[in-house]
Amino acid sequence: MVLLQYITRYMYLVDFNFRMMWCSKFFFLFFISGLTFGLHLRLLHGLRLVIIFRIFTFPVTNTYLKSRMSLYFGMVQTLASSEINIHES
C-alpha cells in the first residue's frame, strides 16, 4: 500500500513536470532545467509531507519565480491534505 502511494505520488510529479514542459517556449532548456524531486518527511501519526524542490539552471525573472513558487506550495498543500484525508478515513 505504501509502495503504491509512493508510485502514485511520483507519477503525479512526473505528469505535472511534462505538462509544464509542453507549455514552455524553451522546450529543451526547460526539460534540462526541469528536474523535480520530492523530499518525504514523516510527521506525527505517520503523516507524510512532500517538499518539492526544483533545480534552476538558467536565470528567472522575479515574476516567473513567484508564479512557480505559488504552484509548488499549492502542490505541497494538496499532497499534504490528501494524506490527512487518507488517515482520517
Which features would summarize this protein structure in a list?
single chain; 89 residues; alpha+beta; two-stranded antiparallel ribbon; 3 helices; 2 strands; 62% helix; elongated
If you had to describe this structure to a student in words, what would you say it looks like?
Keywords: Membrane, Transmembrane, Transmembrane helix. There is one protein chain. The chain is an alpha+beta fold and 89 residues long. It has one domain. Helix content is 62%, strand content 16%. The protein contains three helices and two strands. Strands 1-2 form a two-stranded antiparallel sheet. A hairpin with a 5-residue loop joins strand 1 and strand 2. It is elongated.
Helix content range of the residues, please?
55-70%
Order of helices and strands: HHEEH
Whole-number average pLDDT? 53
Please describe the biggest sheet, giving its number of strands, its sense, and whether it closes into a barrel: 2 strands, antiparallel
In spatial order, strands of the major sheet run: 1-2
The backbone outline, from C-alpha atoms, is elongated
Structural class: alpha+beta
Total helices: the number is 3
Say how many strands there are: 2
Low-confidence stretches: 21-34
- Give the total of domains: 1
